[in-house]
Design a protein that fits this description.
Distance between the termini: 44 Å
Shape: rod-shaped
Order of helices and strands: H
Largest sheet: none
Strand content: under 5%
Length: about 35
């Protein structure tokens, strides 16, 4: 991901990965909240 002409694509890929991680974290948090009840 160090090629300058691919930078926009790399940024898009990292954004997608970050969104995926964020969704997984939200899922885990909701599971924890459900377990607490």
């Amino acid at each position: 991901c160090n090629e300058s002409f691919r930078l926009p694509l790399c940024t898009f890929e990292s954004e997608a990965k970050r969104a995926e991680l964020y969704r997984e974290l939200n899922h885990l948090e909701s599971l924890k909240i459900i377990e607490r009840r």
